[in-house]
Amino acid sequence: MATKTKTKGKAKGVEHRGLALDWAAGHGPVTGALSATTGAYAVATVGTLAHMPPGWALAVGTVGAIGHTASGLRQKLAGRTITSRAASWLLGSGWTTWTLATGPLEWTKLGALAVLGVGMGAAARSVGFYEEARELEAIAAAERQVARELSAERRAIAAEWVDRVQRVCGVSLHVLAVEMWPTGTGFTIDAELPAGGITYDRIAKDNSRLSADARLPHGCTAAASPGIDQGRVLIDVTTVNVLAAEVPYPADYSPLSIHTGIPWGYRTNADEICAYLREQCALVVGPTGSGKTNMVHVILAGFARAEDILTWVIDLNAGSAGLPWLRPAMEPTDSQQAMRPGIDWLAASHEEALKMLDAALRIGDYRKRAYQDLMAKANTDKLPITHEIPQIMLLIDEGAEILVSRDPQKRELAKKILEVIRMLRAMGIRTVLTALGATSSILGDLMIRREAKTRVALTGGATEGMDLAKLFPGAQGLRIEQAPYKGSGFMGTPESPAALFGTWRILPAQIRDIVHATSDRHPYLDTVSAKAAGPDYARRWDADRTAWITDHTPNSPGTTSETTATSSPTGGLNLSAHRQTAVAASDEDRLAEAFRAQIDAQFATTPGPEPESTPAPKTGIGGLNLSALRGEQDNAAQAAALAALEAAGPEGTGASAIARALADAYGTNRQTISGWLQEWADEGLAVRVGTGTKTRYVHHTHTPDA
User: Fold this and answer.
1) 178 CB burial (10 A radius; 0-12, 13-18, 19+)
2) I need a surface site. Which of 204, 266, 534, 569 has the fewest CB within 10 A?
3) How buried is residue 491: exposed, middle or buried, by Cβ count under 10 Å (0-12/13-18/19+)?
4) How far is residue 508 CA from its own chain's centroid?
5) What is the number of other CB atoms lying within 10 angstroms of the CB of residue 49?
6) In this structure, what is the dihedral angle of CA atoms 156, 162, 167, 172, given to the nearest 10 degrees?
7) What is the Cα–Cα distance from 211 to 208, expressed in whole angstroms?
């Protein structure tokens, strides 16, 4: 038989002929007996020729028998195994001694050696089976011992809690199983309720009394919940307080999806709890100091990791909830690839929030008509959410307060927020509202109670304005004293009943890491929705709408609604003559020219109407890196612009003319068109002719070289 072996480090195999033997392998019953008999015959033959004294062979066999006996005792082998090995040594040495004394070349001696070999092989095989059986039995005995100990512990737990529930709740249980949590922080009791219509609520209403009777540590609870059927109950008993310690946000930034759930925190048994928001809205309640802002960042982190979610944020408190997710895109990096922010749109003023909400309503309305064929093909009445058609998650910090405010501006926002919540579920636009308290005024709106099925109450030990019964109707045994730590509270979803939970701690450095890790993962708004959103969405990162982010002067526009109001007087005394910020007309002209030059220098636009001699100031004003965002939903607009350039013929056209032609359909501005024209000129798709105010571009098909 031929075998091929390949030498390490060589490409060619070396072919060997003959039987391949593994000399490092141990002996079995057959090879062991064969080796012993052939060895004995060889010793006898050579010893006879060399006139070896016969007693030497017997002495060697005796020593071997003693050695194997000692080794077997040390290994705790069975007596029959030790006896078999010692007998093999003695019989083999006895045959060798007999042969040395009388000569090996006799059929009687050869037959005796063959019988001896067969006996040794059979004995080895028999004791091998016996030792294997002994080993398996020892393992099984150890497992039975562990099971007995564990079963004893579980039986003790079951008996203890049967007695406790009978004493505290007056209900007799029949415990079916006790499951110890892998984390070692508690256990779950699966029990059968007695006949007579007793339900789990009978026990759940006494959760706090059961916890006190069991002398559980603070932060640990005994919570009853429905079992596998209505005649069963599950009692989760937490024995280790996992909410007291600050747990950092997991370093795993793997992709998520709106369909698989977004992790928001962990239960007292250390299991993650996820929010499923494809069709649900969410409400997060937390007073000052409870960790609500941190919770908002945890939510935004989950949205940033998702491949089918675009996040829009409304925060009228200077946009503080969204700014940490924009800053990494504003910082210079060594990477050639532009960094995209962790959120897709941020509104920090009343005007910007109105634009965002109006865009969401237009998108939802247009999606209902434009995607009818897609929904029919998928045989569903809800828009299929994918990376190409993402869900829009609208997070409104302190949005619940906006809904109950009497301020005219906020009431206008509230009307549109409720319209988004009411109308756009099927089209993939949902909201996450936060509030400072769980009061009747906040939860009085039926729309909030009906649509916000995912609810969070971060208590931090605060009792004022935290009515858990209103936030989690039907849940029993929830007490604020159970969650006195920052970042801890109660969370309930349609998939998971309201119970204690804790959220992770996330810091700015980790937010930066998440933005960097997920920058290339964010989806783009689909073309249908981008067209419906119009210029309000396409120009959301324009300099005049994002200047407030980097402008840190006390009266910078867009910082607050009050400063916006004062910058555009609508009535009352005109005190502009007394303001130190008044600028002469000539200064305004110079500032306007410098501002246009700044935009052209930063966003690679073509020279505007200003003379060529006007130098572009080289000021390094910080801002968003718009190269990753500019045109992200303008594929159709780009194609239309290129078609307009080709239609202009040999005379060519400029950025302003194309922008005017596309403004109504796509909302594309002159700066964006200028950037495209310069890119096409670099790529050879267009030829630039003239300079300054006479600059125009000609499609390459109309040039002489074409």
Assistant:
1) buried
2) 569
3) buried
4) 18
5) 9
6) -160
7) 5
Q: CB burial class (10 A; 0-12, 13-18, 19+) of residue 359?
A: buried
Fold of 262-538: Rossmann fold (3.40.50)
Distance of CA 334 to the CA centre of its chain: 27
Average confidence (pLDDT) over 518-544: 91
Eight-state DSSP code of residue 17: E
Give whole-number Cα distances, 93 to 44, 61, 89, 116, 273, in Å: 10, 5, 6, 11, 73
Written as one letter, the residue type at 501 is F
Between strands 222-226 and 282-285, the pairing is: unpaired
- Phi and psi, residue 169, nearest 5°: -105, -15
Do 62 and 93 meet the contact criterion of CB atoms below 8 Å apart? yes
User: What is the helix, strand, coil percentage profile of the chain, to 5?
Assistant: 45, 15, 40
Q: Which one-letter amino acid corresponds to residue 453?
A: K
Which of 200, 196, 203 has its CA nearest to residue 229? Answer: 200
How many helices and strands, by DSSP H and E, does the chain display? 23, 18
Structural contact between residues 301 and 506, judged by C-beta atoms closer than 8 angstroms: yes
Query: In angstroms, what CA-CA distances link 494 with 251, 286, 424, 472?
Result: 28, 20, 20, 11
495's tokens: 């998939």
| Number of Cβ within a 10 Å radius of residue 644 | 17
Domain residue limits, the chain: 28-138, 171-238, 262-538, 591-706
Query: pLDDT tens, 616-633?
Result: 333 334 445 444 444 444
Q: What angle do CA 654, 658, 664 make, to 5 degrees?
A: 155
Report the alpha-carbon distance of residue 628 to residue 634 in Å, rounded: 12
Cα–Cα distance measured from residue 706 to residue 694, given in angstroms and rounded to the nearest whole number: 23
d(CA 39, CA 566) in angstroms, rounded, equals 109
Model pLDDT, residue 461: 65
pLDDT score for 463: 65
- Cα separation of 634 and 538, whole Å? 8
Asked if 274 and 263 count as a contact pair (C-beta separation under 8 A), the reply is yes
**From CA 670, how far away is CA 657, in angstroms rounded?**
9
Q: Output the six-digit token pair for 124.
A: 């080895």
CATH annotation of 591-706:
1.10.10
CA dihedral 136, 138, 140, 144 (to 10 degrees): 180
Please enumerate in sequence order all residues whose Cβ is within 8 A of that of 521, keeping only pairs 6 or more positions apart, or say none: 255, 304, 305, 307
- Give the per-residue pLDDT at 196: 84
Q: Please state, in angstroms and rounded to a whole number, the distance separating the CA atoms of residues 704 and 541.
A: 39
Which distant-in-sequence residues (6+ apart) come within 8 Å of 214 by Cβ?
164, 222, 237
> Exposed, middle or buried: residue 113 (CB in 10 Å: 0-12, 13-18, 19+)?
buried
CA atoms within 13 A on the CB side of 341: 25
- How many other β-carbons are positioned within 10 Å of the β-carbon of residue 195? 7
- Degrees, nearest 5: CA angle 579-581-585: 110
Q: How confident is the model at residue 581 (pLDDT cuts 50, 70, 90)?
A: very low
In 103-231, which residue ranges form alpha helices assigned H by DSSP?
A: 107-169, 201-204, 207-213
pLDDT at 619: 39
Q: What are phi and psi of 537, to 5 degrees?
A: -85, -45
Nearest to 272 by CA among 283, 281, 262, 286: 262
What's the pLDDT band for 184 if we cut at 50, 70, 90? confident
Query: Is 630 within 8 Å of 541 (Cβ atoms)?
Result: yes
Q: Quick one: pLDDT band at residue 378, thresholds 50, 70, 90? A: very high
